[in-house]
Amino acid sequence: LPRRRAPLVLLGLVGLGCGGPDPGAQPEGWDSAVAMRPATDRNADPKTFEMDLEARIEELELVAGLKTPAWTYDGSIPGPFVRANVGDRLIVHFRNTLPEPTTIHWHGLRIPAAMDGAAGHSQPEIQPGETFTYDFVLPDAGLYWYHPHVHSAAQLGFGLYGGLLVDDPTEPADLGDELVLVLSDMAIRDDGSLQDPQTGLDFGTLFGREGDLLLVNGKKNPEIRARAGRRQRWRIVNAAKSRYFQLAMKEHTFTRIGGDGGFMEKPVESAALVLTPGERADVLVVPRGAPGSTLSVRWVPYDRGYGTTFNRPEEEVFRVRLTDEAEVAETPRPKTDRVITPLDLEGATPIALDLTQGEVDGKMVMGINGVPSWEAVPVPATVGETQVWTVKNTMDFDHPFHLHGFFFQKLDASLAPIHPMEWKDTVNVPVDGTGRFAVRYDDRPGMWMFHCHILDHADAGMMGVLDLQGGSGHSAH
Ligand code: C2O
Ligand code: CU
Ligand code: CU
């Protein structure tokens, strides 16, 4: 079966005003085996994407023959896939019909604090039966995602997450047949019911609770089709609440061209691809093999500090079936190199954080600088300021550290940028190691959260807040 045109070609037509498909719709050429339900744009203005979204419980058949009362956005897992262009306005009329409060956090988007969804900091919880309208401009191209920010571990683990792709119509065409892959895992009992979130930190769940059911766009072990030699562009987000994904494909390498915040300085080639919870990757893969054969994309154990003691065995996440057509010669890869200017660290304020574990009233808590989130003092900052964060891991296993609302640049021990440079919002802080990054607050005062993106850890206290004050009022955007 021949693949159709790459979606970017279609978006080009939209940009020229020739009509064409709604950019939010499932683009042609995407593999139906991993198709996500597209969000519906009900606004006629091509620069505004306006949609309704409801959080509700719905019975889904995630495992054949089993009914699961999943927590969903609009009745699907993942929630509706939003696709719009950079600079577009996104309006989401949200309704909560869950039995408990929730909010939506737009992970990675540089939007005003009031739209960030951080319950208790930037907006009140949205109670059952209540509505809230999110309304903001999409400032940067890249792959983002949305998820709750109240009891995040439980709500996300029950199925509340969705993908959001922000296209840049000027980016090089034909990087490959494009797929967005939202990876997750769920913990489901043999009768189909959801396992308790069990976010308490006993020994077995200290690592963060993982689910047995690996999902790609809500489907278990799907099979996608590809033509041998024809480049694929996979845009991947790890939407699992605690599980690290290390992916490998025998005799193939991944060429990563981008991450959390769009293209990186230069591509990096590797045999395995690691995504901590929250992270995104934009990778090119050229599948090769005999026509009609299958290639296995596998989850492989990643050492998070205890060797692989607590890891599960290697497992297939999805398969690529090569079509019966003869292998084609690989076409030259368009350049995606991007100039990223290192932030000027002259006069930057140092911020030192230790990721810690402790006990409060006989209960194990996780925290930052010795205190859990509910006792934490906000980190002060002013618009216009640049800070260098040094996040030290004093514990026995890795933590993916995430900051809301601002991209940062990773630094090495001498505070030089790590090349190839890229804009990040989540960074792995390895066991006995340190995560260092530079961040500049150009605009958008408010309360911004930071936390471990193993959401069991965040809920257990490994979270804090940045208090960004307005400053001299200058704004870079
Ligand atoms: Cu995906 Cu507070 O984060
Ligand atoms: Cu976030
Ligand atoms: Cu953690």
Automatic annotation (TrEMBL):
Plastocyanin-like domain residues: 64-170, 180-288, 349-466
Pfam families named in the record: Cu-oxidase, Cu-oxidase_2, Cu-oxidase_3
InterPro entries per record: Cu-oxidase-like_N, Cu-oxidase_2nd, Cu-oxidase_C, Cu-oxidase_fam, Cu_oxidase_CS, Cu_oxidase_Cu_BS, Cupredoxin
PANTHER family: MULTI-COPPER OXIDASE, MULTICOPPER OXIDASE LPR1
SUPFAM superfamilies the UniProt entry points to: Cupredoxins
Descriptive protein name: Multicopper oxidase family protein
Species name: Polyangium mundeleinium
Keyword annotations: Metal-binding, Oxidoreductase
